[in-house]
Amino acid sequence: MKVILREDIDGLGKSGELVTIKDGFGRNFLLPRKKAVLANEQNIRQLEHEQSVITARNAKLKGAAEATAKKIGSVQIVIKRKVGEQDKLFGSVTALDIAEALAAQGQQVDRRGLHLPEPIKTVGKHEVELRLHRDVVAKIKVDVQPE
């Protein structure tokens, strides 16, 4: 099945691209969620017509993401957790915890944009990447302290 993506999807493509996918993925995920449209002649012609609009929208989103990255880059989050021996945490600090701490400081972010390869399980200072746009990545300083 060939579809035209309406938004960026990791591992598949960027908005406005024509991609070939499996039928089930398109029918069950992309099309119902309006993340893609079928690639018929009419939609392809419309895509060619809207390329300039898509480019302008992406530039606007990138500019907004860069402004947000500057604000978030100066923020340092302090998270307090209970610790055991050798400064190991009971549990861990996840992307959801970091997103909630940012929200408490007035910075609303999507937790799915936080790139945390594995949950934080030690006390100390850590850097976490926040992907705001495909070209914009902000670094967040997370300080995990014992309670």
UniProtKB/TrEMBL annotation:
Gene for this chain: rplI
Superkingdom of origin: Bacteria
Function: Binds to the 23S rRNA.
Family: Belongs to the bacterial ribosomal protein bL9 family.
A GO CC term assigned to this protein in UniProt: ribosome
One Pfam family this sequence matches: Ribosomal_L9_N
UniProt xrefs under PANTHER family: 50S RIBOSOMAL PROTEIN L9
UniProt keyword annotations, A-Z: Ribonucleoprotein, Ribosomal protein, RNA-binding, rRNA-binding
Keyword RNA-binding: yes
Cross-referenced NCBIfam families: L9
Name of the featured protein: Large ribosomal subunit protein bL9
Residue span(s) of domain Ribosomal protein L9: 13-40
SUPFAM superfamilies according to UniProt: L9 N-domain-like (SSF55658), Ribosomal protein L9 C-domain (SSF55653)
